[in-house]
Design a protein that fits this description.
157 residues; alpha+beta; Immunoglobulin-like; four-stranded antiparallel sheet; three-stranded antiparallel sheet; 7 strands; 40% helix; rod-shaped; membrane; transmembrane helix
């Protein structure tokens, strides 16, 4: 073999090695790119889910029940601290034999047709020396679509 043939063969072998190395690296980069695309797709899905949950939270009511004393009178306050309206709101004390609430006031106020955000209902409570210091209450309501919800609260002085 002449020097020219040996040189041509060596250059061909080096070119083949470089091509093989390039092919291997390209495959590795393609695998990494696919993995990054999967991660990006998963992240996008989670972001969409988070945005959807935030939108639904903005339309949900959030209730709070408190028992307060102002002067000599006690009142239950049912507050909607959420960002959405509640419909057909009901309130009741659970497992309370000696209810401090007035039946006439309850039947007059409830069901409360629409409780808008940042609104509250005030109920007069007739507490005496033997009244319990804690009350368990339940607020039930419907959303715009008519789906029913209920939440239980423990209220104390």
């Amino acid at each position: 073999m002449s020097k020219f043939e040996v040189l041509s063969l060596a250059i061909s072998i080096i070119a083949a090695i470089i091509s093989t190395i390039s092919l291997v690296r390209t495959r590795e980069l393609a695998k990494e790119q696919l993995e990054l695309e999967r991660v990006t797709a998963e992240l996008s899905r989670l972001q969409i889910k988070s945005i959807t949950e935030q939108k639904t939270e903005k339309t949900k009511p959030k209730f709070n029940v408190s028992l307060t004393k102002l002067g000599k009178t006690y009142n239950f306050y049912i507050s909607n601290t959420g960002q959405g309206s509640a419909y057909n709101v009901h309130f009741e004390l659970i497992d309370c034999e000696d209810s401090p609430l007035f039946d006439a006031e309850l039947s007059e106020i409830f069901p409360y047709q629409e409780m808008k955000p940042s609104s509250r209902i005030k109920l007069l409570a007739s507490l005496h020396m033997n009244s319990p210091s804690k009350y368990q209450s339940m607020v039930s309501w419907e959303d715009v679509s008519g789906k029913k919800y209920e939440e239980i609260f423990w209220t104390s002085l």
